[in-house]
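Example 3.
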Amino acid sequence: SQQGEEDPQALSIQEGENATMNCSYKTSINNLQWYRQNSGRGLVHLILIRSNEREKHSGRLRVTLDTSKKSSSLLITASRAADTASYFCATVETSGSRLTFGEGTQLTVNP
Amino acid sequence: EPEVTQTPSHQVTQMGQEVILRCVPISNHLYFYWYRQILGQKVEFLVSFYNNEISEKSEIFDDQFSVERPDGSNFTLKIRSTKLEDSAMYFCARGKGLGVRDTQYFGPGTRLTVL
């Protein structure tokens, strides 16, 4: 398996529900970042969490990081139809600065 | 945060031709990156560029690829002899500030189609 694997691959929920996406990785990291991508469009940065942090919030987003399990989760609360997109986690290792992306989770929020 | 802009938004070329993709970053940012995303696949790192030098590159970034910042403004990715498998979205990204391993902000991408 590869660095930055998300699950589930696809998630379909109703507006107002919460959406949780998970990401696992294999190496030691400096930070982990979450991005959103609407179909055929660019990547929008959502949040960055550093290896010495366990939880961060930004608006309706909550990100957790468990370095002992090498995993992270992204929670979107009170989802909206406009949240429909692909969500990617990407890690930055302790050396270098490249982002290593996962396969992504396709989130569909039904109105 | 302001993003970078990329030109062109879509480039169609014949196999074997050279293409140059351009990225116009906001000034005072030192770290720049190129990534690509083949349709339906994940985003892959190509190269990072710091202080007018390549600082890191992936195995994808072979001799067919080159990057430069010729005039201190535009940041270009050149593919010398395109192949069919080079068809992808190419994203330029910039680092948030002066630190390495910081947030990266992506441009809207250039869709390259090789026929």
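Residues 52 and 69 of chain B are 7 Å apart (CA to CA). Chain B has a mean pLDDT of 88.
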